[in-house]
Amino acid sequence: MSHSLLDLFRHLSKQKGAIRNFIAPAPCPVLKNFHISDHGDIHIRDCQEVAHKIREIKRQGSQNFQILTDYDQTLTKTGYVDGKKADSSFKALQDSTFIPHEIKTLTRALYEKYHKIELDLTLHPDEKSAHMIDWWEGNFNYFVQMGLKQEDHGNVVLNSRLLLRYGIQDFLSLGSKLDLPLYIVSGGISEIIEANFYAMLHNGETGEAEEGLREYWEKRVQVLSNRFIYENGQGIDYVRPVIHILNKQQFIYDTDPSIKFRKNVLIMGDILEDVQMVRESEHDIVLKVGFLNDLEANAHLMPEFMKTYDIVVTGDGSLQPINFLLKQTFAEELKLEDIHLHQDHKSFETIKTVFA
Ligand SMILES: [Mg+2]
């Protein structure tokens, strides 16, 4: 954990209003805010299979369960409150005032070169992976030249367009109540991801829950992502190997072999490759939830998403479908008698059939 980054947010939290809100506003069914309109639509490939997985997860209890999730566009939103694009962790840094114009142009050129390769479905995974490493290392080589301090990443986040999905507070609070290990596995930047959560956990927007959630974050949440190396407080290099969209599995099982110990896993991601972060042979039940955020632009991916994930949430929705699933599954452990969670919302009709 990065202490100087944490210290920055601890310090800022004493000044009221110094940290903006980082959680998307609640969807409002009556006065529909057309930018943040919905919890998303839920699609389930095979209700019986999902019901079986959930029964098994429930039977083995929360002590055998953990969560592996992507960060960019999975825990965060694709769309910002103004209806325009939200940031990713990379973009937040790249577009920040800490990166001079010349470097922005150079990283943009890398994007032009490698994004085409990233989308090329005909390329062998090993070849694609080699290109992704070149791309990521290229970016990091440029970023390192800036000699950023840890606190600078905090300021990047404060001025960013990063936005966590509505329901993140409930999601963390369920993780805390059930004492679930939560791994945030990202090809982005650890410092930015951590600063994003520190900001959200120090600005009062989670109310009375804040302290408990901070404890959970320190105790049970691990960010497995790219990280800078510091000397005398300045970034001088980055940790290798880099983690990118295609090598998450290798990275996480090498970094933290204890991931193998819990046999049942919920994984969450927003691209097809995210599903490969889990090594299925190490686990019993893997429940897979995919976010296909922009259904209009990516309708062609829907059949493949439905094949890959058990549950697909479309429409840049909230995390409430996941929270609903966790609450239903562990209702007894959580001592929940009646789950009032937007049960009247159309999105939850589909998911309720699993528990019927
Ligand atoms: Mg992502």
From TrEMBL:
Keywords from the UniProt entry: Hydrolase, Magnesium, Metal-binding, Nucleotide metabolism, Nucleotide-binding
One GO BP: nucleotide metabolic process
Substrates-to-products reaction catalysed: a ribonucleoside 5'-phosphate + H2O = a ribonucleoside + phosphate
Keyword Zinc-finger: no
Pfam families: UMPH-1
Keyword Magnesium among record annotations: yes
Classification via InterPro entries: HAD-like_sf, HAD_sf, Pyrimidine_nucleotidase_eu
Name used for this protein in its record: 5'-nucleotidase
Species for this entry: Halteria grandinella
Taxonomic lineage from the root: Eukaryota, Sar, Alveolata, Ciliophora, Intramacronucleata
